[in-house]
Target: HTH-type transcriptional regulator BetI
Amino acid sequence: MPKVGMEPVRRKALVDAAMRVIGDHGSLTVTMSEIAKQAGVSPALAHHYFGSKEQLLIETVRVHLQRLRDSVVTALRAATTPREKLSAVIRVSFQADQFAPETIAAWLAFYAEAQRSEETRRFLVIYARRLHSNLVANLKALCPAEDAGRIAEGAAAMIDGLYIRQSLKSAPISTEASIALTEGYLTTHLNALKG
Amino acid sequence: MPKVGMEPVRRKALVDAAMRVIGDHGSLTVTMSEIAKQAGVSPALAHHYFGSKEQLLIETVRVHLQRLRDSVVTALRAATTPREKLSAVIRVSFQADQFAPETIAAWLAFYAEAQRSEETRRFLVIYARRLHSNLVANLKALCPAEDAGRIAEGAAAMIDGLYIRQSLKSAPISTEASIALTEGYLTTHLNALKG
DNA sequence: TATTTTTGATTGACTGATCAATCAATAAAA
DNA sequence: TTTTATTGATTGATCAGTCAATCAAAAATA
Model:
């Protein structure tokens, strides 16, 4: 069994397992045992590689935000006009894997954790800022700069809010409807400025 | 000390203490001891009156949503026109005590808890539905029914989203700015329909 | 009115379970 | 032989929940 170079493999397996367990459980009060079991290793190994449960959770946030970022970058590259880039950002926010109930539950848990863990909070703040600046950058090509900031705030809030409402799983709003609401927000506000 | 009729007094003290401790802690992983201490009683007494920690937490959500509801009802009574009533709903959502960091942290924790506790989820769903129907009822007086539902979804999402973004405490959006964004959403979308 | 009984309020001390974290030991590669 | 991977067993701390005992007010009784 013991081969060399297992570290990156185990780290990835554990981080993925953590996300899955947290998503299923809908909470960060999951045990290292559960995570380790899901990853197919012993709890002791999880501690060996991550030092503590907190570190594993922080790493889990970091990795998943990084992946989300990669999706955004790819989608932005594929889009050409500013308006298309705005749509790309929105589309990625609501893409299937992100909008799955377990994923939403996990993000919600991380937002709650950010109240206690400075490092978790930092990552989420960075993500929020990046979303905002992506929106602003492209909005500036379509409206005055002073309006761009405001509209970006609104759009970002709407995206986050649609996640929250989705998390309650009552009257679930479809992906398409969520995208349509956010697109509608942008379009209507941009049109209003053109008068 | 032991007087008769303490039950309602203690229950209220414990529910208030729970909200405070959860808000400060930013999480539901608080101990009965902390809550009891904050309420000035022994942990055993908290168990005596609520049976379990879970019951106390559920009761805490229930009571605080009830208070929020009372605020909304009062604000709606004070408003006369549909447009004023819409503004009243928005204003209450962002009123000082609701928008305080500890309160936001507590709500966030409860939303996360709703992933696990069916009863907590039920209360939050009821609140979400009520917000939605308050919005729809008044929007219907200002635009076609088929648009009212959509606009209400958007406004509700924006309100929730502004809370989430507030919870990160970075680039905090002021109460006034939050109200302005939500009002702007309604106004702009209603105007767009009038063409 | 004085005395006894009952009842509600309250807690300290305890229990059992859970879990993060540690560590010494093993096994297989290099 | 040294290094890396891996785990079983264990520890120590934390907590929810229980329980028997106490205390004082209220109600009943004499």
User: Anything to note?
Assistant: Residues 1-4, 31-33, 43-44, 47, 51-53 of chain A lie near DNA strand C (CB under 10 Å from a C1'). The mean pLDDT of chain A is 95.
